[in-house]
Amino acid sequence: MSEESRRRLGEAQRRLVAALVAGGEAPAGFDRERLRAQSASLVAKRRAIVARIRPDAAEAAGPELAAEFAAYARARAAPPSGYRADADDFAAWLVARGRMPAARPRRRWWSRRSSP
Known about the structure:
Elements: H1 3-21, H2 32-53, H3 55-61, H4 65-74, H5 83-96, H6 109-113
Protein name: SCO6045-like C-terminal domain-containing protein
Pfam family, one: SCO6045_C
């Protein structure tokens, strides 16, 4: 495979990922409606997992959770690696938008045990 072919393939893959996870435009040759449906499904799956990992964020978003998470997902070209990072990023996004108070630092179990 030539270097130019690899570059074109990489760009096409980047556009496909953006269409699936961030609502980007469908690359040439792909059915827009099917990509839109798959994208909505992937965002819903992420939202459900994030809500289980960070119920405080889901509670802060309230009835607008679906809309808030969709806006959060569209604001990124790709999700962070790992659901925990995605959940924490969503919570930080809510904090930045004034929808959720900043979390207090959690004390680790070992620091609580050594305290008088």
